[in-house]
Amino acid sequence: MSAHVHCPYCSVGQETAEYSDYRPFYVNCSDCARRFIVEPVRNGVVVYRDGEAPCCSDPECRETEMGDSGQD
Ligand SMILES: [Zn+2]
Questions:
Q1: How close is the Cα of 20 to the center of ligand 1, in Å?
Q2: How far does the centroid of ligand 1 lie from the alpha carbon of residue 72, in Å?
């Protein structure tokens, strides 16, 4: 799967990389190069600015707080 998202900083639309589960991941904007978070959800994706996502939707926070090793 991939998704069409809009950068939360500059609003440029772009396709995400392929993903296969519901773990959030970082995207670097193709236009302004700033990093944001994309979290796949049941009906699409949710986009957060880096640092504004709740811990469960933040890849780095998940890794440190929840021990998410990236394996199922
Ligand atoms: Zn951007």
A1: 24
A2: 31
